[in-house]
């Protein structure tokens, strides 16, 4: 059962890194058009879109800055902690 927790933690960690990669990818204009960019988009957009509906973009000069990915990553950390605590509680 300890291995199960390890696998769950690994999967949650990997998804967090995928989210971070998606955020970094948004800073480079043409990367989203590559096959790697499209895969990252398909994997992360369902989760990130939840936060885009909640957190409005902030006006910055002539454009906007989207803070929803930052909020989404922090929320993911809380989800990860909660899932691990619940799994450990269920095992003990």
UniProtKB/TrEMBL annotation:
Segments crossing the lipid bilayer: 7-28, 67-91
Key words of the record: Membrane, Transmembrane, Transmembrane helix
Matching InterPro entries: CCB3/YggT
Annotated GO CC locations: membrane
Signal peptide: none
PANTHER family tied to this protein: PROTEIN COFACTOR ASSEMBLY OF COMPLEX C SUBUNIT B CCB3, CHLOROPLASTIC-RELATED (PTHR33219:SF14), YLMG HOMOLOG PROTEIN 2, CHLOROPLASTIC (PTHR33219)
Family: Belongs to the YggT family.
Name of the protein described by the UniProt record: YggT family protein
């Amino acid at each position: 059962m300890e291995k199960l927790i390890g696998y769950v933690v690994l999967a949650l960690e990997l998804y967090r890194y995928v989210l971070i990669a998606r955020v970094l990818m948004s800073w480079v204009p043409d990367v989203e058009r590559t096959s790697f960019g499209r895969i990252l988009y398909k994997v992360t957009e369902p989760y990130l879109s939840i936060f885009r509906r909640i957190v409005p973009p902030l006006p910055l000069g002539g454009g906007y800055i989207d803070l929803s990915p930052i909020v989404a990553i922090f929320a993911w950390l809380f989800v990860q902690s909660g899932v691990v605590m619940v799994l450990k509680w269920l095992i003990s």
